[in-house]
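tool_call predict_complex ligand=protoporphyrin IX containing FE
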Amino acid sequence: MYRWLDERLDLERFKEKYLTKAFAVHHSYFIGEIALFAFVTLVITGIFLTLNFEPSTRLVKVAGKDLPAAYASVLYIDSLPFGALLRSVHHWSASIMVAAAFLHLLRILISGAYKRPREINWFVGLLLLVMTVGTAFTGYSLPFDAFSATATGIGYGIAGSVPYIGEWLGQVVFGGEFPTYHSIPRVYSLHVLWLPLILMALLAVHMVIMVKQKHTQPAYAKKVAPGRILGVPLMPQQTYMSTILFLLYLAVVFFIAGSYIAHPIEVFGPPTATTPPVKPDWYLTWIYGILLIIPGDLKIHLPFGAVMNSEFIGSMVIPGIVGLVAILLPFLDTRATKMRYMELPTRHPARTAGTFALLAFLITTTMAGWKQELGISAGTFWVIIIGSMIVSYLVVYYGIILIWGRPPKDDPDA
Ligand code: HEM
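tool_result ok
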């Protein structure tokens, strides 16, 4: 059979050209793979969910009660054999994909892997992260319980606050003022079709660029085989390692998902006129936190009568500044030669300290999402956020210099 196919498709040449490629080995490279496994798991469990989910807010009678069809169909999914487990695996995998993509970004950041020649893959990666969060957010609204309807309503408010195009954006993403009859079908098509397609295309580009440019090498490769590519062949070693990691991933995610069933919609019930106290999922809580502490009367007037209100500034402008710094990074931190080895965080104190300042910002703005529960005022929170960024930068920067000394200037691969 193999010979028959080889004669027609020249499989041997393909094997030699691609499957023998040396793959650098380092534990931190597995984080990107975990994001990939989470995506595959999401697609497979998502197919099961679509077979039983009804994307509609029409009312259906269940046990004498009028319930939105989307909500009722999720109750039905939960009642199927392993239905609640698979829905929980889907939900947990979404969280794991976002977390793994972010940790992967941190790895690229502190090892300098965004530099020449990998700038394009850094941009593709940033897009991947935004699209991953977008896909997770659209999935959140679908069960149409009191929790998800409120959280999606916050998203609709944010889309509507964009100057000039807010109303149009609300129409495109939410099918009109949320929740209308069109909202769930619209968000559904984004969640199960358009966003996954975009993710697949971006992932394919990401992988092709990575193979073409060759992966950065861990620092040990320079000592063991200087100037040469060190790694294991894609087939069979790397494939075996990845398969084992995928199986481990499945074992862990099924264990977590079975132990903690995600988003139990019967606890929240169908949407009601009174809004329950809802916070977005953890990866969006930092934006929610900023919205809680930004002065509500903040307004910037724009030409043609448009206004940038506090909602837009808190949810788009401030995160947009973080995104802009990320986009500009490969141009601000350049190097003269192509990068082959991962850079050591201790040899780049300013970049490492900046990474810690970013983490301090994300942690403290996330904490602001619990402003009421913590009983801390908005003003105090701003002091905590800015203060923790400055302190963590200075502590990490001078800590590195104190322990490892000032970095030498003459080693481009340090
Ligand atoms: C959202 C899902 C993502 C997936 C599934 C993914 C997957 C991967 C994988 C499997 C690798 C090779 C192994 C490794 O270096 O970890 C890789 C490399 C890379 N990724 Fe991602 N990635 C994602 C997001 C991102 C993000 C958010 C960034 C940065 C903004 C990024 C930038 C890069 C770069 C620059 C490389 C080359 C690294 C090197 O040569 O050292 N990726 N990605």
